[in-house]
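Service request form, structural biology core

Requester: graduate student, group of Dr. S.
Request type: structure prediction, single chain
Budget code: on file
Notes: please return the result as structure tokens.

Sequence provided:
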Amino acid sequence: MSTLHTAAQHTPTVEARVTTDETRVVLTIEEAAHRLGIGRTTMYALVMSGEIRSVTIGRLRRVPARCLIEYIDNLLDAPNQLKSAA
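Core staff response, request fulfilled:
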């Protein structure tokens, strides 16, 4: 008697995917964009402008996870560009 396996049995849980994504040292452009909650095109623009640092591994462009934190820290340290509502 054979046992049928469903796709759900082989799909990692949300918790497993989050843990794996959060522990990765380098991310693809798409993964980095997802982590910041921005679009892929915006992420490419930030990388190409140098606002977010990246590395090349072989022929692949990757964003070190710590560079995302560095980018956010730089945004927080920058003078507020919004004019007061007065």
